[in-house]
Amino acid sequence: MAKRLFDLLLSSLGLAVLALPLALVALAIKLDSPGPVFYRQVRVGLRGREFRIHKFRTMAHDPGDRGPQLTVGLDARITRVGAFLRRTKLDELAQLFDVFEGTMSLVGPRPEVPRYVALYPAALREKVLSVRPGITDFASIEYRDESTLLARSADPERTYREVILPTKLALQARYVDRSGLGTDLVLIGRTVWAIIAR
């Protein structure tokens, strides 16, 4: 209950304080390329429930696109504004709406798409999905340049499944074991610092 109140308070405050910057981001996206402001994708959340995450759209809009779900390096689908949003992580700020709605938390394991969740070992799946997914966590900070790492691989899909995903799961399980207000504040601080340091 305390974590939910913390999330509700900070997401409300964030949406209010950032209303103008968020509106400017939305305007930039609309002026840069045709399509919706938000990108919605099905992710797996608390106790395995699926939901549609909010992100500011960073790629060219194609309703029929069934391209790869992994973004590798300088993906040709990324728009000019999208490249800036990804580099600064501003595209993730749209998830404040998800935190406010209660499908996500400010801090928690990053929600995955169903096809990768299907690869989770049973014990880790149960643990990682026992808490609300979050905007940031240990794994998010560790793999903040994930697309660049994948671009160096001859087989990005395999590298993600066999190298990155298991490490992410271990870090997410570590968060669940250490979850609490103190851990959340530390991770929020580390996330802000990592973005500023870029």
From TrEMBL:
Keywords: Transferase
Record keyword Nucleus present: no
InterPro entries in UniProt: Bact_transf
GO MF: phosphotransferase activity, for other substituted phosphate groups
Pfam families: Bac_transf
Domain Bacterial sugar transferase: 3-196
Keyword field contains Transferase: yes
Similarity field: Belongs to the bacterial sugar transferase family.
Name under which the protein is recorded: Lipopolysaccharide/colanic/teichoic acid biosynthesis glycosyltransferase
Species the sequence originates in: Sphaerotilus montanus
